[in-house]
Design a protein that fits this description.
Blueprint lengths: L1 E6 L2 E6 L3 E5 L8 E4 L2 E6 L2 E4 L8 E21 L4 E21 L2 E4 L9 H8 L15 H8 L20
Antiparallel strand pairs: 1-2, 1-5, 3-8, 4-7, 5-6, 7-8, 8-9
């Protein structure tokens, strides 16, 4: 079973289990997202077209990460005038895993497990760096742990200071 949904001014053909990159959506990784604006439902030869949306149809997805997309370069030039300008842009996008498509009395669910590992870490693993993209935290030194576990000794009492000699006139 597949559906055509509309989000971010664009239309996407999805089915359960698809990995989808859309315009930025609000939410934390692991959050559930429901798309109610389903334009079309299909299963084999049977197709249900909405006017403008299919009543009761819902596509559910899980938010995996929000990240910046690929870099786009904007280059302007006027020949023989010495005019050149370069600008760049990176659009914010959200990665989703479609978990279910429901509507017209039918439902299609995805049975897999959702991995919330961001693309940065997957790319680092592909380059053979392991989890090098994860911020490194310095573990506490073992000597400091031993000192914290040992009982503390009391400090010896301080001796009383001798009185200052009085000045004679």
């Amino acid at each position: 079973m597949y559906a055509v949904i509309k989000t971010g001014g664009k239309q996407y053909r999805v089915q359960a289990g698809d990995l989808l990159v859309v315009e930025k959506l609000d939410g934390q990784p692991g959050a559930e997202v429901a798309f109610g604006e389903v334009l079309l439902l299909g299963e084999g030869e049977a197709v249900t077209v909405g006017a403008p949306t299919v009543d009761g149809a819902v596509v559910n997805a899980t938010l995996i990460e929000t990240r910046k997309g690929e870099k786009v370069k904007i280059f302007k030039k006027i020949r023989r005038q010495g005019y050149r300008r370069t600008r760049g842009h990176r659009q914010t996008e959200t990665v989703l895993r479609v978990t279910s498509v429901a509507g017209a009395g039918k439902e299609s669910k995805w049975d897999g497990t959702i991995d919330l590992t961001p693309k940065v870490i997957l790319d680092a693993r592909a380059r053979g760096l392991g989890d090098a993209a994860v911020p490194f935290t310095i573990p506490e030194a073992p000597a400091a742990k031993a000192e914290a576990a040992a009982p503390k000794k009391k400090a010896a009492p301080k001796k009383a200071a001798a009185p200052a000699p009085e000045a004679e006139a």
